[in-house]
Amino acid sequence: MNDPAGETAQSELSPPQHQPHAGELRALLDELRALEEGLPLAAREKLAPLLDAEKLSFATGVAPERITALLNGAQLDNWHAGAVDAAEGRQHSRLVFLRETRLKRPMTRRLSGRTPRPYTFGEIARGAEEEGAKISKQTVHYIFTEGRKPSAESLAGMERFFGVLPGFCSYTENEALVARLRPVVQQLRLLNRVAAATAHGVTRIAARSTEDLSNADERESILSALLDTGVLDDLDPQRDDQR
Q1: Each residue of 189-219: pLDDT tens digit?
Q2: Strand, helix or coil at 154?
Q3: Whose CB among 61, 147, 148, 237 lies 3.0–4.6 Å from 142's, allowing a Cys bridge?
Q4: HEC string of 71-126?
């Protein structure tokens, strides 16, 4: 497998369990804002890497300025006004995005001083073929330069070559953001439960799913910040229902 596959975690954009709509994304963003505002400043600073617009953009294909605005409470309807939502246009723009962001890096020490560059159409074709797709250099050229629609097999092969899960290029913005932000909200919920339980003397808590264990470094740093501030010391004992 090519380098890009190693550079992008396969869990970055897990397929949604169902097709999310604007209302679901709005509810998720609202909950995220509420959870974030409920954190002490030290914990909010630890949360920042999980909500970095550039990182979220890299993982979803959504423009960072759009992500920043949505995280700051922008209305979804205003953002979607005039947006091109056709599946073919979305696939093409996402493929171009992958080629611009998943760059080929020098493989040897002798070439280490060279600047990373986009993969050539021939390299993409060969890489997609190594991932099980049958596609020619000329076809890749037409896909990227003329917007020709790739077959489902070719699209999935190019997605695997670039190191993202099949479906990345077909997600709507809502689907991509919901898939990426849902685990963050789940982690914040978990951290609140863990911190509250710890404040009441609970010493062992079992995670319910593998999603609870993702981004362990950030999770642990946020939890430590929560506990260090002492803001949980005066919690109402009636809230201690997560033991």
Answers
A1: 887 777 667 656 655 555 554 444 345 566 5
A2: helix
A3: 148
A4: HCCCCHHHHHCCCCCCHHHHHHHHHHHHHHHCCECCCCHHHCCCCCECCCHHHHHH
